[in-house]
Specification:
There is one protein chain. By secondary structure, the chain is mostly helical. Among the domains are: 30-104 and 318-346, no CATH class; 113-281, no CATH class. The protein has helices at residues 3-38, 43-54, 57-69, 73-86, 92-103, 106-119, 125-136, 139-153, 161-173, 184-198, 204-217, 220-231, 235-245, 252-279, 283-296, 300-307, 318-350, 359-373, 396-414, 419-426, and strands spanning 386-389, 392-395. A two-stranded antiparallel ribbon has the order 1-2. The longest helix has 36 residues, at 3-38.
Length: 431
């Protein structure tokens, strides 16, 4: 074995060791990255994949304790449901503390309902129920317009044009809630969105999108008349101005948002929908959270608490995921090239090359084979009847006889054998 062969085999062995070492780390990462990228447009699948990496019994226990300390029984129950679905054990003490907390909330629920109806702000199911009851009758919207009108009139920065626009839409559709307009679900969603805005629970990007929706479906000039009626406490004038301010053809986007928000409220509860609106940055992301809630149900709040926005979008992680996938592809190409090289070297060992033959000998063999394969020309076999010499044309027979006589004469004179004798000597013997 030559030195060159030894070096080639050593480099090949080193390459195999490197590929084996890097593959154990790259392949799992590439596989997970490919699954996450594939689930980018499916929030339930994306959240399910990411929960496997971050959810543990210690994390669940800590989150349940924090929810119980904050008297958020809905969030505590959501974590318990999530732990049960993932096979994570929850202590009996935490379950008992949750049951005790729920049994002591009857009085607080009644008080929260009354506060929600009067102030329009709520962070519990009972308080939000009071707010919805007030807004469905129109009382809540009138209360908000009367409150905001003086602030807007004197140009106070505290004037919230988004709340004014949502209250205008709600008041204009109160009479048509049961027979058309936004519909009951969308009407309730608009109220919940208004509550989230007043409590500063809307994300800034979603607030910007909501502002554009309100400007599209509410006439700014008519809103000024609405605010003047609010300053005068003219209830009938408020209703008439609200109806005049609405652009019915532009309410579609706000109707869809309200319907999605109300469906979220039905699945996750009051605190759950406020949590979702604080995470979503656009109406499209509200739809994504709704799809997540339809799959996870009561576990939605715990999932959003653990994953935050990672349950909805890939975010800045997308570049790392793409790099992981490309690394896995590069590793597979390297393995393919390694196998090809290994096959060539093994083949050379099993079937070594023959030494090259002498070029001159090979050329001679080729020339012989070509000459043997070349056909020779066939001469004509026509009989000759006469020959021509200095004496003129003679018959072939006479020429032959004359030649024979001359030959004999020359033979006799010279003492040598005659032509007949030479011919006789050259003929094969008779058998």
């Amino acid at each position: 074995m030559t030195l060159r062969t030894i070096i080639a085999w050593s480099l090949l062995a080193l390459t195999g060791i490197v590929l084996a070492g890097t593959g154990a780390r790259l392949l799992p990462q590439a596989r997970r990255a490919a699954l996450v990228l594939r689930a980018a447009e499916a929030p339930p699948a994306l959240a399910d994949l990411r929960l496997k990496d971050v959810l543990s019994s210690e994390r669940v226990a800590a989150e349940i304790d924090a929810a119980l300390a904050a008297e958020d029984d809905e969030l505590a129950q959501s974590f318990i449901d999530l732990a049960d679905g993932r096979g994570i054990s929850v202590s009996a003490d935490q379950r008992e503390r949750l049951a005790t907390l729920r049994s002591s909330t009857a009085y607080f629920s009644a008080r929260a309902f009354a506060a929600g109806a009067m102030t329009g702000e709520a962070d519990s199911a009972a308080g939000l129920a009071g707010t919805l009851a007030a807004d469905v009758t129109g009382v809540g919207d009138i209360r908000d317009l009367v409150r905001e009108a003086p602030l807007c009139a004197r140009g106070d920065p505290a004037c919230d044009r988004v709340v004014v626009g949502l209250a205008t839409v709600g008041l204009a559709t109160t009479a048509t809630t049961w027979i058309g307009g936004l519909g009951l679900a969308a009407r309730g969603g608009v109220t919940i969105t208004k509550v989230a805005r007043k409590m500063h629970r809307l994300s800034e990007p979603l607030t910007a999108g909501l502002t554009r929706m309100v400007r599209a479906c509410v006439d700014p000039a008519a809103v000024e008349a609405l605010l003047q009626a609010g300053r005068r406490m003219n209830i009938d004038g408020l209703r008439a101005a609200a109806v005049a301010a609405i652009r019915p053809t532009e309410v579609g986007a706000l109707r869809d948002l309200g319907r999605n928000v109300y469906q979220l409220y039905g699945i996750t509860g009051a605190r759950g929908v406020l949590q979702a609106l604080s995470l979503a940055r656009s109406p499209v992301e509200v739809v994504r959270i709704e799809r997540l809630a339809a799959r996870f149900g009561s576990k939605t709040r715990a999932t959003l608490k653990v994953l935050d926005r990672a349950a909805l979008v890939l975010g800045a992680e997308i570049s790392a995921l793409v790099r992981a996938v490309l690394g896995g592809i590069a590793w597979c190409i390297g393995v393919a090239l390694f196998c090809r090289r290994l096959g060539l070297m093994v083949g050379r060992v099993l079937w070594p090359r023959r030494p090259p033959a002498d070029r001159s000998l090979e050329a001679t063999r080729v020339a012989i084979s070509l000459s043997a394969a070349t056909p020779r020309p066939i001469l004509s076999q026509r009989p000759v009847t006469s020959v021509t010499d200095g004496r003129g044309a003679q018959p072939i027979g006479a020429e032959a006889s004359g030649s024979a006589d001359d030959e004999r004469e020359r033979g006799v004179v010279a003492g040598g054998p005659s032509a007949d004798a030479r011919c006789a000597g050259s003929r094969p013997p008779d058998v």
